[in-house]
Amino acid sequence: MKKDEEKKEPAKSKTYADLQDANGAQQTSGAIFEADIDITNPLFYGYYTAKIPMFKDNNLFMERAKGAYANPLTYGSAPLLSGYISKLNYPKMKNTSGLGVSALGRGRVIGFTEGLAFRAFWFGTNKILMNAVYYGGFLSNETAR
Q1: Where residue 127 falls among pLDDT bands split at 50, 70, 90?
Q2: Which one of 46, 94, 115, 127 counts the least CB within 10 Å of its CB?
């Protein structure tokens, strides 16, 4: 028998009434994380420090890209500044990338793991979104994943 085929213990039975609470505890619904940014990247024009607080309201975690210039926004090994993230999700958040750039023809597709203009509540990252719109075309192919 292979290691991955070993028998696992059956899960302890729980009531259906507990399902919503158990799943709700795994949601990241408003925590603040510290990100490291490359202020020389056009996406961060107008930022003057290499650290920025990011508001996260989801469980999207992006692996770091292999390219040397493809990780302009990353989270470190202890990124939580404030709020709640479950013990299961916190290791998934550590040492990840917060954005990914893909080259598509002559254009760029820029994907973010956070809502940069979340309900007009968190204004510190609106500029990143505007920079992506106006300066995204200036990104080199070297920044792509």
Answers
A1: very high
A2: 46
Backbone φ, ψ for residue 75 (5° rounding)? -110, 140
Among 62, 127, 119, residue whose Cα is nearest residue 95: 62
Q: What is the pTM of this model?
A: 0.80
Q: Return the beta strands (E) in 10-125 as ranges.
A: 31-37, 51-56, 73-82, 99-104, 107-112
| DSSP state letter for 8 | P
Q: Strands of 51-56's sheet, edge to edge?
A: 51-56, 31-37, 73-82
Instruction: Give the closest residue to 143 by CA, choosing from 96, 95, 111, 113.
Output: 111
**Contact call for residues 36 and 76 (beta carbons, < 8 A):** yes
Ramachandran angles phi, psi of 26, nearest 5°: -90, -5
CA–CA dist 95, 91 (Å, integer): 9
